[in-house]
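Discussion board: Methods & Data

I've been asked by a reviewer to show the raw model output for two of the constructs in my manuscript, not just the figures. I'm not sure how much to include, so I'm pasting the format here to get opinions. Each protein appears as its amino acid sequence followed by a line of discrete structure tokens. Is this the kind of thing reviewers expect to see in a supplement, or should I convert it first? Here is construct A:
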Amino acid sequence: GASVSFDGSWAAAGAPGDAADGANQSGDVSIFRADALGLWSHVQALTPPKLTDVGFGASVALVGDTLLVACEFSLAGAAINGAVYAYRRAANDTWELEAEFDDVAPAPLSLAYADLALEEGRAYIGAPRQPTGTFVQPRYGCVFVWERAPSGTWTHVDTLQPEEPDTSMRFGSRIDLAGDRLVVASTGSAN
């Protein structure tokens, strides 16, 4: 797989180039679970929720009973964007689609190649192609912050942007949590 995340006895491996359901490079995510002896078994395969998704599983983040999955490209109307989905582990230990984070990044390609970080009840979505302010080139990027209510509803609560958007490009290309700190990488420079 191109991406992997695990927490306790659960693991998720994204394979964005796989031909899931016969669709070329639509991708998939394999879910594994370890038994009491530490032996891992494949227990479920997640496929893209939409037929227009390509590169499903490009990035995954798993914490507790929540799994985030990024899709490199997704067709939304006439626009091409990326997509990020939240899955929740049900009582019967199957993973079910809970939410799609698609309404916060309307700019074309803003969620393409999104990176993910997750902590209990909070999702961080790196959007390296999201325009900052008005639409100008190059795109500077941002990190969208979402919180999950006990009811299962996800709400966009913050957008993190580079401090100096004129010198930083593709902010949010890589993100990671280190304790109580979110580390955000920028892969280029506008200069």
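Construct B, same format:
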Amino acid sequence: EIFIKASAHKGNIRHRKISSLFIKIDDKLYLFKEDDVILIKDILEDEGIKKSGFDLKQDYILLLPYDIELSGLYFDVEIGEYLIDSSGTNNDLSILSKKYGAGDIKSKEDFFGKGKSEKNLMEIPEQELFLYYWDVLETTERLKDIMMPLIKENEMENLFFEIEIPLIKVLGDMEYHGIMVRKDVLDNLKE
């Protein structure tokens, strides 16, 4: 099983470029820059290698422009939290980490800033980015280990693995490619 998280430059969904792709395998973190992502296409598309993360739909979408379809999706902390506690309104990793006792991690906003003070990815020293994403993926792994038994205990394994996880690709494709609607049918529904 590998844990994955992509970071991207700002921009339109169809033109956003990956700045860095981080992959955690056991106790090692690997950093792939945009030009290197294609070198691990076989790993990313391999159904036999489980991929876990936080907001895997975003990672899935970010890889599509590189002709990479992230496969082997296994566990998404954001979806796990939705099933365990659908009343939650803030699924920031730092909040979930505190909620489940999985450690303390800077929020995305605290690390990157917000609005006018938001840092450009190119301004952040690589070592600082590396350490932040190490914390992100370590926390993701701990949360997965905490959430999985809760999903089993609440008898939601089938819902999680058979419906929610496959929906990552469906919703990611819809978000990236868009959907067709028939205006005449929508107009008829108004009546």
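Answer (T.O., handling editor elsewhere):
This is acceptable in a supplement if you add a one-line summary per construct. For B, something like: The CA atoms of residues 24 and 138 lie 8 Å apart.
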